[in-house]
Automatic annotation (TrEMBL):
Iron keyword on record: yes
A Pfam family recorded for this sequence: Hemerythrin
GO molecular function, one term: metal ion binding
Sequence intervals crossing the membrane: none
Entry protein name: Hemerythrin-like domain-containing protein
Family in the record: Belongs to the hemerythrin family.
InterPro entries, A to Z: Haemerythrin_Fe_BS, Hemerythrin, Hemerythrin-like, Hemerythrin-like_sf, Hemerythrin_metal-bd
Keyword tRNA-binding carried by entry: no
Domain Hemerythrin-like, chain residue ranges per copy: 12-129
């Protein structure tokens, strides 16, 4: 069973946003499984892969969401975009050398960050987009 899954309360009702959020939950799940996997002593390459996947995917997803918000003239567009930019900045801060020396700490921190983002941002912010008619 997946540790991270899209529960009914996470759905916004905007299909493409919900589908893209599912992918973010999958990435969070991959981070969790990587953290728990005791059979891979050196996880550096895997962590680098997941950080890069997050960077790429978040950029794509945020762009889609922002385009949609623009199209409906979403009232809280700017503050929402600021949160997206903050996410990208945070992910960009991960330095390969630091990752190599603190693999477990980095995974724990990444998981903590993703968990709070998925819960707070989707539940508190993204659902508001769907409420604006």
């Amino acid at each position: 069973m997946a540790m991270y899954e899209m529960k009914p309360e996470y759905y916004t009702g905007i299909e493409f946003i919900d589908n893209e959020h599912k992918k973010l939950f999958e990435i969070a799940n991959n981070v969790y499984e990587l953290l728990m996997n005791e059979f891979i002593p050196d996880k550096y390459d895997y962590i680098l892969d997941v950080v890069n996947e997050l960077k790429d995917y978040a950029k794509t997803h945020f762009q889609h969401e922002e385009d949609y918000m623009s199209s409906i003239k979403y009232r809280k567009f700017l503050s929402h975009k600021v949160e997206h930019d903050g996410f990208i900045e945070k992910i960009n801060e991960y330095d390969p050398d630091v990752i190599d020396e603190n693999q477990k700490e980095i995974l724990l921190e990444l998981l903590d960050f993703l968990t709070s983002w998925l819960v707070d941002h989707i539940l508190m912010q993204d659902k508001l987009i769907a409420e604006q008619k």
